[in-house]
Specification:
Shape of chain A: globular
Order of helices and strands of chain A: HEHHEHHEHHEHEHEHEHHEHEHEEHHHH
Number of strands of chain B: 5
Distance between the termini of chain A: 38 Å
Strand content of chain A: 15-25%
CATH architecture of the largest domain in chain A: 3-Layer(aba) Sandwich
Helix content of chain B: 10-25%
Distance between the termini of chain B: 8 Å
Number of domains of chain A: 3
Mean pLDDT of chain B: 75
Order of helices and strands of chain B: EEEEEHH
Structural class of chain B: alpha+beta
Low-confidence stretches of chain A: 362-367
Strand order of the largest sheet of chain B: 3-2-1-4-5
CATH superfamily of the largest domain in chain A: HypD, alpha/beta domain 2
Radius of gyration of chain A: 21 Å
CATH class of the largest domain in chain A: Alpha Beta
Largest sheet of chain B: 5 strands, antiparallel
Bound molecules: iron/sulfur cluster
Number of strands of chain A: 11
CATH topology of the largest domain in chain A: Rossmann fold
Strand content of chain B: 25-35%
Shape of chain B: elongated
Number of helices of chain A: 18
Mean pLDDT of chain A: 90
Oligomer: heterodimer
Radius of gyration of chain B: 18 Å
Largest sheet of chain A: 6 strands, mixed
Chain lengths: 367, 101
C-alpha cells in the first residue's frame, strides 16, 4: 500500500538503526507519548534494536488507560438506566469499573453498543427518538474533533436525545506535568503524530524550551519511529532542545484549522483527572454551557462521583514511565488481557497489554 | 484507537449536509467524514481516525522524505550495513500485510 509499505521497509529500518548506533555516545531516556507507538515498538521489537544506552519509556498516551475509574462507573450507571442506549468504542466496554464492566451491563439486558464513529451514535439517536442515546467520548486531541462534530450535528438537527459523556484529555499539559515531576527521567519526547495532525506543534515549542527537552513529532510505522528516535538522539547528543517534525507528510505546524475551530466552538478547556496520575490543571475538555442539553454528566446527574483505584495495580506508575509493566507483581499472573486489573492491560494500546502480547517479560537491556 | 492508516479517496458525497467520502485501503472500501479536509480531491490519500479524515498526505513532503532516505540507504550500503547483524528481519512475516485497526 502506498504511504505504508515504504515506512515498513526493513532495509531502510536497518540503515536508520545503524545511524542511531553511530550517533549515540551517552545514555538517554526517551518517552513515546502515544500508545499506538508503544504498540508498534513492541510489535516490531524496536527497543531491542537500539543501542544499550537508549531506554524507551512508555507514556500516558492511551485514552482508554487514562480514563478515570469514576468515569467508567458513570458510564456503567448511565447504561444501566432504562430507556438508554450507551455507545462507545469497543475497548471501553472491557475496562473494569469498580464492580463490573459495560459488557456485563449488556449481558444483564442493558443496551450497550459498539460504534466505529461518534456519527454512528448520532444516527442511532435519530432512528430511536424514544431512547436517550449517550456516546462515551474518551480520547485525546485526535478524537476531540470527531466528538465535537457529533455534538454539533445533534445540535443542528435538534436531536435532544443525543448526549456525550465526556472524558477528553489533552497531551501537552500531561507532558509538562511529567517533566515537572521530581521523579522525572524523560530527556526527550516522541510526540504523537496524529495528535499533532489536529493540533500542530506550536504548543510544544515552549515546553521544549522551558524544560530543555527535544520533542520530535513522529509517525507510527517502524521506520517513522526509528527516524523519530534518531532525530531525538541527534539533538540530545548536541545539547539541543527543539521541536522537529518527522511526520512531515501529514503534520503541519499550524495543524488542522477546521478541526480546531469546531473543537473550540463545542468544548472548553477544563481540569481533568488522569487515571493513575491524578488531576492535572487545564489538561482536558468539557462541553461549553451552550451544549448542556447534550452533556450526559448534567442530564444524568453523574458529576460528583469519586472512587478509589484498586491498590494492586501499578498502572499509574507505568503511565508515568516510572515502572515497566513486567515489574508489576500482577503482570501475567492475576492480570492478563482476559482478566485485566487495570486499563493499561485492557486496551491494545496500553503498555501492559503490549508487553503481554509480544511476550516482553524483560527488556533486553536489563540483562 | 490512534492508529490511522492512509486511504485513497475515490468518491465524495453528501450525507445529512456533511461532506463524506469513500476511501480505498488496498481494495477495502470504507467511508469517512471529510468535513475537516475541505480541500481534498479524489485521488489524494487521507489519514482517517475513527471515521473522520484528519489530514491529507502531502505528496511533496513524502517525496522529500524518500530522497533523504535514499541517501541514508546509500551511505549504509557503502559501509556494508548487511554485516551489521541486526535481528530486524525476524519480525518481518508478522509485519507484512498487516493492517492496523
Ligand atoms: S500488569 Fe495489570 S495490575 Fe499491573 S500495572 Fe499493568 S494493568 Fe495494572
Amino acid at each position: 500500500m502506498k504511504y505504508l509499505d515504504e515506512f515498513r521497509d526493513p532495509r531502510l529500518a536497518k540503515a536508520i538503526v545503524r545511524e542511531i548506533h553511530a550517533v549515540t555516545t551517552k545514555p538517554w531516556v526517551i518517552m513515546e507519548i502515544c500508545g499506538g507507538q508503544t504498540h508498534s515498538i513492541m510489535k516490531n521489537g524496536i527497543d531491542q534494536l537500539l543501542p544499550a544506552e537508549i531506554e524507551l519509556v512508555h507514556g500516558p498516551g492511551c485514552p482508554v488507560c487514562v480514563t478515570p475509574l469514576e468515569q467508567i462507573d458513570k458510564a456503567i450507571a448511565i447504561a444501566s438506566k432504562p430507556g438508554v442506549i450507551l455507545t462507545s468504542f469497543g475497548d471501553m466496554l472491557r475496562v473494569p469499573g469498580s464492580e463490573k464492566d459495560l459488557f456485563m451491563v449488556q449481558s444483564e439486558g442493558g443496551d450497550v453498543r459498539v460504534v466505529y464513529s461518534p456519527l454512528d451514535a448520532v444516527r442511532i439517536a435519530r432512528e430511536n427518538p424514544e431512547k436517550r442515546v449517550v456516546f462515551f467520548a474518551v480520547g485525546f486531541e485526535t478524537t476531540a474533533p470527531n466528538n465535537a462534530m457529533a455534538v454539533w450535528q445533534a445540535y443542528r438537527q435538534g436531536l435532544k436525545n443525543f448526549s456525550l459523556l465526556v472524558s477528553h484529555v489533552l497531551v501537552p499539559p500531561a507532558m509538562e506535568a511529567l517533566l515537572s515531576s521530581p521523579a522525572n527521567r524523560v530527556q526527550g519526547y516522541l510526540a504523537a503524530g496524529h495528535v499533532c495532525t489536529v493540533m500542530g506543534w506550536k504548543q510544544y515549542e515552549p515546553i521544549a524550551e522551558k524544560h530543555g527537552v527535544p520533542i520530535v513529532v513522529t509517525g507510527f510505522e517502524p521506520v517513522d519511529i526509528l527516524e523519530g528516535i534518531l532525530m531525538v538522539v541527534k539533538q540530545l547528543e548536541k545539547g539541543q532542545a527543539r521541536v522537529e517534525n518527522q511526520y512531515s507528510r501529514v503534520v503541519k505546524r499550524e495543524g488542522n484549522r477546521p478541526a480546531q475551530e469546531l473543537v473550540n466552538r463545542v468544548f472548553e478547556v477544563a481540569d481533568r483527572k488522569w487515571r493513575g496520575i491524578g488531576t492535572i490543571p487545564v489538561s482536558g475538555l468539557k462541553l461549553r454551557p451552550e451544549f448542556r442539553d447534550h452533556d450526559a454528566e448534567i442530564l444524568f446527574e453523574e458529576s460528583g462521583r469519586e472512587v478509589e483505584e484498586p491498590p494492586e495495580c501499578l498502572s499509574g506508575l507505568v503511565l508515568q514511565g516510572l515502572k515497566k509493566p513486567h515489574e508489576c507483581p500482577a503482570f501475567g499472573t492475576t492480570c492478563t488481557p482476559r482478566t485485566p486489573l487495570g486499563a493499561t492491560m485492557v486496551s491494545s494500546e496500553g503498555a501492559c497489554a503490549a508487553y503481554f502480547s509480544y511476550h516482553r517479560q524483560a527488556k533486553i537491556h536489563d540483562c | 484507537m490512534c492508529l490511522a492508516i492512509p486511504g485513497k479517496l475515490i468518491e465524495i458525497y453528501d450525507e445529512a449536509g456533511m461532506k463524506m467520502g469513500k476511501l480505498d485501503y488496498a481494495g477495502t472500501i470504507n467511508t469517512a467524514c471529510l468535513e475537516y479536509v475541505p480541500d481534498i480531491r479524489v485521488g489524494q490519500y487521507a489519514l482517517v481516525h475513527a471515521g473522520f479524515a484528519i489530514g491529507v498526505v502531502d505528496e511533496e513532503e513524502a517525496q522529500k522524505t524518500y530522497e533523504l532516505w535514499a541517501e541514508l540507504e546509500k551511505a549504509a550500503a557503502e559501509e556494508g550495513t548487511d554485516i551489521f547483524g541486526m535481528p530486524l528481519d525476524t519480525g518481518d512475516e508478522e509485519r507484512e500485510g498487516e493492517v492496523s485497526p
